[in-house]
Amino acid sequence: MEEIVKLEGVTKEYELGLIKVPALRGVDLTIQVGELSAIVGPSGSGKSTLLNLVSGLDRATSGKVFVAGSDTSLLSSSALARLRLEKIGFVFQAYNLLPVLTAYENVEYVLMLQGRPAAERRARAMQMLEVVGLGGMAKRFPRELSGGQQQRVAIARAIAAEPALVLADEPTANLDSKTAAALISLMVQLNEEKGITFILSTHDPAVMKRVKRTIRLHDGAIVERPPDEEA
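Above: the chain sequence. Below: its structure as tokens.
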């Protein structure tokens, strides 16, 4: 199978004054095209850091990160921004919708940044809202939508440009259990029917049960099982 993400010996350290705090320690990881994977572990285990490195929002201290065939360590800031715009969709814990834009306009925004024609943008944005079950709410602003509906708009925005990869950082953290279950079902459906590659970070057991692969992080390293489960 084709690789979409590959990490080789990746470490990440943050400097707090004179102290260097390790967030990731020698991570090796390969994600294949079409996977639905979850990065799991307790708070502080390195989940968000790993997603930030894959997205190019942050750079590794050492090691290599490959995304869609590109070695991100060799890319300039502008090239990384282009990679994110063309290849990666994002679903954030806090939704990150633009409050002054309608649901339709939020979904259309990435397509506009890509320079797509207006007619194509309109058709694609409406199609994606239909896919996530919000076709009748295109003109509503984020403040007029529930948390679950806002997260569905975020998913529509993430997949509108047909990215190679969608990264979702704790996508169910702010949702009730029923809404969270519906959201994960939508991601599973999009993965199975459209072949979209998803990498989620989560500590939600309900999410872990639905994904095809679970990758466990503990103290910045990938482990087979949590230390408290080891024999």
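The helical segments are 47-55, 77-87, 103-113, 118-131, 147-160, 177-194, 205-210.
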